[in-house]
Amino acid sequence: MGALIAGGGSGAVASSAHAGCTRFRMTDPLLTGRSRRTLASALGHPDVGGKIPDARWVRALAFERMVHDQAFVSELLTRAVGLLELERPAAVRIRSGGDSVDTTATELASAHLAAKHAGEATMLFGLRVPFVELADQRATDVRPDFAIVASRTDAAGNRVGSWLVMGDAKDYERVRSRIDDGRMLKGFLQVALGAESAAEWSRLPAGMQVHRYGALAVPRNAYLRPEAVVEDLADHRREVRARVHERVTAYRAAGEQALTDAELAAHVAHLEAAYDPGTCSTCSLFRYCRAELRGSSDPTAVLVEDASIAPASHWDILGTKLKTVFSNNIRNNFGFLNRATPDDTDGADKLFVQEGRKVFKEVVPMVAEMIVAEAERLDIDPQGLRRLWLHQANAGMNRLIAQRVLGHEASEDESPTVLDTYGNTSSAGSIIAFHLNSDDLESGDSGLICSFGAGYSAGTVFVRKMG
Predict the structure, then answer these.
(1) Which residue, 69, 142, 338, 359, is most buried by CB atoms nearer than 10 A?
(2) DSSP code of residue 449
(3) What is the C-alpha separation between 161 and 164, in angstroms, rounded?
(4) Nearest C-alpha neighbor of 205 from the set 108, 120, 102, 135
(5) Helices 182-200 & 234-254, crossing angle to 10 degrees?
């Protein structure tokens, strides 16, 4: 195997939008020896939509240029020194690590001496640091955007060494409240990766310590003027260390033997994917997983996509509707005031309770009226619906709802039931009924998928068979 692909920020920390997906984690380039884009091509489903727009590249390069500007360097050092209560530097130096591990080590040694003996602060760009836990192996390096080296003093104010403050630059379009901004979290996790790697590096100068705080350069305004944000990395470094250890352990358990294309295909196929419409499309394996989902026999595997890319035989979604109605007949009385009456905290009314008959009488007309009203809005004759796939919780309730919608008592063909076979499968019931009782419909036939439950909450999806 060639150089290990250790990856950068999103591949090395748990902040990735795909980190909850087993398939994403276990196709780590460190394990497969290939980037996910290369892997996607080998699987026959190349990533054709992951290119970063040219305008985005221009923005990133422009921001990086501004971060290297002398004015920003002075501002960042001033802010970092002030917030971290470091010794005010006698001068500011700007150096480059030359995008080389050896040059980085040399420049860090020089910056350490300048900080300890002359009280000078150094801003370093173009750094390369061996990846944490893989420094003794041929692995891709961590490449922090910048780092600050400043004097380290003892309680008496005497210089005893230097601090290494790791940093990263992110050209985010806008910085929201930091506690709510997931991009800021991801940025500082990348800074933490650099800090962990540097702290473990054997070539770090004696007397230089990695500071527990890190810096993130982000745009202050629409003109990309950089602003320095400083944050404690203690929690971030623990998370990074745990994630890296998980990756390295998996790599060592898998062994160093490179997998063939056939072995890789089998490895990926057996991994369970977690589908999220909000994030999956940004993964290089998206087209592979989409093809798998299209051919899946899992009754709850539902793929919603644009008609222009859908297979010839598919179901058009004509319209959807959600409705919520609150009722005292299905509720619990647990709340934040319970602590004021500790003698009743464990009362039966603090659990889920319902008046079954009253719920039945409320839900049937509510759902039936909702279906009819939505059908009229979509210009669909509710009595012309070919089939109803209703929530599988109560057969009697379904029979009455179907009768109100169709205008007559529904047959098993018009409103199929799977409750007697699978029981109450909660929100999956209507989809299971659809999966098992939809292949026989002809092109042009319309139907309704409807689920409802506690709350009350109800949802409708009107569909039409195509192809």
Answers:
(1) 142
(2) E
(3) 10
(4) 108
(5) 70
- Give the residue among 440, 439, 446 at the shortest CA–CA distance from 371: 446
Given the DSSP bridges, would you call strands 208-210 and 159-169 parallel, antiparallel or unpaired? parallel
As given in the structure block, the two tokens for residue 216 are 């993130």
**pLDDT(49) > 90:** no
Q: Can you say whether the dihedral through the CA atoms of 408, 413, 417, 421 is positive or negative?
A: positive
Q: Look-up: residue for tokens 């529904």?
A: 410
253-275 per-position pLDDT tens digit: 777 667 788 888 898 988 888 87
**Which residues, including other chains, have CB under 8 Å from residue 225's CB and lie 6 or more apart?**
66, 219
- Kindly state the helix (H) or strand (E) to which residue 388 belongs, with its residue range: strand 387-390
Q: Name which residue leads in pLDDT, 139 or 102.
A: 102
Q: Which residue, 164, 234, 238, 237, is CA-closest to 206?
A: 164
Q: How far is CA 132 from CA 232, 246, 257, in A?
A: 19, 12, 22
Q: CA 196, CA 166: separation in Å to the nearest integer? A: 10
pTM of the complete model: 0.65
Residue 256 neighbours by CB under 8 Å, 6+ apart: 1
Is residue 390 within 8 A of residue 428, CB to CB? The reply is: no
> Domain 308-466: which CATH class?
alpha beta
CA-based torsion, 78, 80, 85, 89: positive or negative: negative
| Average pLDDT for 148-160 | 91
pLDDT of residue 2: 46
User: What pLDDT does residue 371 have?
Assistant: 97
Q: Which residue has the tokens 């991994």?
A: 271
Q: Which pairs count as long-range contacts for 438-443, CB under 8 Å and 24+ apart, including other chains?
A: 438/315, 438/387, 438/389, 438/465, 441/386, 441/387, 441/465, 443/467
Map out the domains of the chain as residue ranges: 9-47+243-307, 55-234, 308-466
* Residue 417 φ/ψ, nearest 5 degrees: -120, 135
Q: d(Cα 279, Cα 289) in Å, to the nearest integer? A: 13
pLDDT at 451: 94
- Number of CB atoms found within 10 A of residue 419's CB: 19
Q: Which residues, 6 or more positions from 125, have their beta carbon under 8 angstroms from its beta carbon?
A: 68, 94, 95, 96, 97, 145, 146
The DSSP bridge partners found for residue 330 are: 354
Whole-number average pLDDT of the chain: 85
Cα angle, residue 433 at apex, residues 428 and 434 outer, rounded to 5°: 100
Radius of gyration of the chain, Cα coordinates, nearest whole angstrom: 30
Instruction: Fill in the DSSP letter of residue 203.
Output: T
Q: What are 303-337's pLDDT values in tens digits?
A: 788 888 888 889 999 999 999 999 888 887 787 77
Which residue, among 61, 155, 79, has the nearest Cα to 123 in the 3D structure? 79
Q: Compute the residue count for the chain.
A: 467
Are the beta carbons of 402 and 410 closer than 8 angstroms?
yes
